[in-house]
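Entry type: protein chain
Record version: 2
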Amino acid sequence: QCCRGVRSYGKGKKVLHYTLELNENYLGLRYDTLITGYEPNLVKNHMDAVKLAIQSITGELLIKYYPTKSASVNTLRAHMERVIMTGFTPDIVLVDYGDLLHGTEKSESNWQELGAIYNELRGLAGEYKTPIWTASQSQRSAANLDIIEGDKVAESFSKMMIGDFIMSVSRKIGDKLGNTARVHIIKNRFGPDGITFPASVNF
């Protein structure tokens, strides 16, 4: 999520990043790390470099934290309305991550609630004509797979049916040692899918 945020932020876009796992300070530290290349524990020793790097960026970044399962899509909508009224109209919204939202209506099962949440997120994107990106975890059985397909998504397969663009990132032990991964396009409503790209990564 941060990587996508940095790319948009660095290209002059307004990025609104909702986090339901890490607080604003820690997530901001991750952004500082990605922008400057300094590891998180070294950022505080290079604050001048951080400030200089941020000054050269024309985009804007707003991070908002909600504790896990304390916010719904309606909570995000209300917050978006408030920030838009202040003049901050996001070009991209990141939700880190959708599974940690709670449903707006009571559901009989977790998979039904998650399906409803992802439908609401897709509706929110359409309402504000803004792309919304989120992440989801795979099943434990996918840990040793070369390529993660849609049937390995955790909790609710309805997420696969609702999303417009879905990609997976798979990393086995050898990949973690070699800073490599495989990015697989699971679904692309407006283009080709089923394609796998080798990747170099450094988390």
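Comment: The helical segments are 2-10, 24-36, 40-43, 47-55, 73-85, 110-128, 158-162, 173-178.
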